[in-house]
Amino acid sequence: MVRKELQYRLSLIFYIVAIFILGFIPEVKVLPVHFDLSFLFHGVGFFYLYLMLYDTTRSKLKAFTFSLLFGVLLEAAQTQSPGRQADITDIFYDLVGILMAFITGSRGKDLIFKLTGTFMGIGYIPVGPGTISSLIFVILYYLASGFGTINLLEISLVLIPLGIYISGYLEELWGEDPRKIVIDEVCGMAIALLFLKRSLLLFALAFILFRFFDIYKPRFIKIFEKPKGGMGIILDDVAAGLFSLAIIQILLFLLHTVPPV
Q: I want to staple 168 with a disulfide (CB 3.0 to 4.6 A). Which of 24, 26, 125, 229 is the partner?
């Protein structure tokens, strides 16, 4: 069993690795708007990085210094990639995110973690918050026509460690595996949608399979609940998403076809 304090540190490390990977996201088209994800990635990504570091170190100075140094390191690494040039605006975006988190403070951190863990408050819905949050994520991803598998994979990479950290944090506030935490359903649903072409039928099948595995939790999924804290909350949903994805891929292989959009 992985102790909670170790879970916090591991999820923070994996989040930093994920942010490093996401630093190489290309320009994408989201809904009808064509824009560079730089501001969203740098601002939001480093906003959460500071909050997690501050919560772990209990030191604003350490959290600020490490966040900023990591931003500089990331930018230096990006300049080594083909076709990339140094861009001071990225560091500026990092700094904006860090300063916003710095201003947010301890009380604001609680609110941000609650909003994130409940998927912008959906977790407070008294009936079926997990199902509703999963469905909304499917709809948002379907509408974001510019997002492909690589983008969804990158989102999953950052959501899983962030979800583990925040779920563990909220569990200490609300008790063991509270229903209000639905970031785990979002993580699992993202996994279930990986490698699928945009098809209403495929997306509906992924949603149904994921909710089935997540709600009924067969033994091969329930074992992932054993770790206490955020890891137990997130991993069973990730497992449910993986099994859903595997079943769909097997069906597609057997049928040798993909339904039209």
A: 229
